[in-house]
Design a protein that fits this description.
Shape: elongated
Number of strands: 0
Strand content: under 5%
Radius of gyration: 30 Å
Oligomer: single chain
Order of helices and strands: HHHHHHH
Structural class: mainly alpha
Helix content: over 70%
Distance between the termini: 135 Å
Number of helices: 7
Length: 231
């Protein structure tokens, strides 16, 4: 075998070795990228489900529920394209039925009381997650501007409501203490200051003001009753 042939063989071996390494690395990078996409999809799906089923229902309207559920379905379809998991298929079937019920029946879900600061903080954190999600969806042209504004306005109202609900609960618990209840209703009104010009917020504020007026009348009556009579 001539020197030229040996050199050519060595060169071919080197080229093939480099190609094999490159292919192996490419496959590994593709595998890692696939795992990352799956993990990101699973995390996104879990976050959507958390918003749907862990947020007290009074902080979402039907339009928001449908939007979140449809994004969950899209995520499951993306996951199924990467991994034909029976669990994803089961979740997809469940979510499709859930969206169907939301669209056909517009169910009225009973509110869940939020009477602890820790729970109210958890609610606000989840609402802020939803707020950022909608902003991102709009930025990526997944949601029209009109829908994004409608969703964000409702979420802003819900964030204020979550703050006010704590004071509302304290006011309701202040049985026989009208002044304490009045103070808490004033605090509930203050929670809506960021949306002071919003008609839905004004409607809620008027409800609290009516309660304050009623309590003030009761407090005045109680003071008159307990006041010593002039002989």
């Amino acid at each position: 075998m001539s020197t030229t042939t040996i050199t050519a063989v060595i060169f071919v071996i080197i080229i093939l070795s480099i190609a094999a390494i490159y292919i192996s690395q490419s496959r590994e990078r593709a595998r890692i990228a696939k795992v990352q996409r799956i993990n990101a999809g699973k995390e996104r799906y879990q976050r959507m489900q958390q918003l749907l089923h862990e947020l007290p229902p009074q902080y979402l309207n039907n339009d928001l529920r449908i939007m979140i559920a449809e994004r969950s379905i899209e995520t499951l379809k993306e996951l199924l394209a990467l991994d034909k998991s029976p669990q994803y298929e089961s979740n997809l079937k469940t979510d499709l039925e859930y969206v169907k019920q939301l669209k056909e029946k517009n169910p009225k879900i009973a509110p869940v009381k939020v009477n602890s600061e820790a729970k109210a903080k958890e609610v606000r954190n989840n609402l802020e997650v939803l707020q950022r999600f909608i902003q991102t969806q709009h930025k990526n042209k997944r949601i029209p501007a009109s829908n994004a504004k409608k969703y964000l306005d409702y979420i802003a109202l819900s964030i204020c409501q979550s703050k006010a609900d704590i004071f509302d609960a304290r006011a309701n618990a202040a049985t026989g203490k009208p002044r304490v209840a009045i103070h808490n209703y004033h605090c509930a009104i203050d929670a809506f200051k960021p949306l002071a010009s919003s008609p839905p917020a004004l409607k809620i504020i008027q409800k609290y003001k009516a309660k304050i007026k009623q309590l003030e009348a009761e407090a005045d009556q109680a003071n008159q009753t307990s006041a010593p009579k002039t002989p």
